[in-house]
Amino acid sequence: PSRTHLNLTLGCRQYSIEYKPIRSVLVANRGEIAVRVFRACNELGIKSVAIYSKEDRAHIHRLKADESYLVGEGLPPVAAYLNIPEIIKICKDHGIDAVHPGYGFLSERSDFAQAVIDAGLTFIGPHPNVVQQMGDKVAAREAAIAAGVPIVPGTDGPVSTKEEAVEFCAKHGLPVIFKAAYGGGGRGMRVVRKMEEVEENFQRAHSEAESAFGNGALFIEKFIERPRHIEVQLLGDKAGNVVHLYERDCSVQRRHQKVVEMAPAPHLDLKIRDAMTSMAVKLAKHVGYENAGTVEFLCDASGNFYFIEVNARLQVEHTVTEEITGVDLVQSQIRVAEGITLPELGITQEKIQPSGFAIQCRVTTEDPAKNFQPDTGRIEVFRSGEGMGIRLDGASGFTGAIISPYYDSLLVKVIAHSKDLPSACAKMERALREFRVRGVKTNIPFLVNVLGNQKFINGSVDTYFIDENPQLFK
Ligand code: ADP
Fold first, then answer.
1. Complex ipTM above 0.90?
2. How remote is the CA of residue 419 from the centroid of ligand 1, in Å?
């Protein structure tokens, strides 16, 4: 499109959308997700730009981009990717138009989104105010309440003293879960089942949150027994259109972190699916959500569902949604960031029709026999599972790759797409068994056990699955 401005009237509101073409994208990230975004740029004819720390100077994500720049020299490996002023300077010095944050690192930092915009660049993600609101568990819950979305009973605000914690537990009953109010990634969480354990666990969770996130404030929720984790993928544009791309089931978790994800959620009652997806869209419209995002819910065995949080970014498991809907979420993110509307992209609710079943396994360089301790070193042999219906999203799976101890242990995401859950499981298990990785240990033996488990194949697992099945570790 050649327009620079588009005036729209939607209902009684007037919108004026600026159309700002994106010719180059810097990915403020590394590894697998950087490569995923570069591929999307490449297909759209957009120049891709990488940043890399000195530890990553030989990493493949650097070589997959059209240009790459060293960042954070003299800083520790993770801090290099968090250096906002330097990332902005690289963009300015090299005439880059837009920034994609990926997941992790700066992706949920509203100050980063704001700095990108203040520099006159396009941020490929939601508005900084929305990033901030959704990143704060308490503010996000308030938004959910205001939009009429059911939430888990919990504290109205962050709790900083054990007396407040005891009071909440006495009033709402046990079990409860303590969460870092300003944290994520399953860290700093504790489940408490006995009154006499409240105080001690509060202290521990508080200091864990303090050291991991720099703020010890906790948030207390009623613990839902045997929940399934079901989340709704959303896409919004600058004109206020929001669509959902159905749901994913991410119940297979270890220490509250996702290991295997799938779409759609197996055996989900259609009425519940409709209610969840429309609630998610309502919440997004309520906060003025644009770009890609996810609303996460917990569902109990009686069919009640409760909002837990919004991830205002692309997620690791976005791939399974792409497989069943045929929508490229990363390309859509770039297009809506330019100011193109969803209908112009051919993305309307009626046109999004899920087809088949997709599963993603996160293959990591972790040793299941040693309590998933990360392994490092040189990959001496690497052969991947491939073939019909298998997609591989990765960056360090090749012979000669050096797996360093500095970053996340994700090696490759294996995605299987087939007509239904059992055939997708068979395809995934077959592909996993084809892998040959020598030089570093991987979690593949564990994943093969999951894929061969009858409960998993039947689609009847909840978040207790891994804990309750120690034979999966053998
Ligand atoms: P994070 O931001 O760290 O990812 P979430 O709030 O998304 O944390 O929760 C991660 C996982 O922890 C959920 O998928 C679920 O398995 C578990 N969990 C979180 N809150 C509850 C709860 N109230 N009851 C039961 N399980 C919970």
1. yes
2. 30
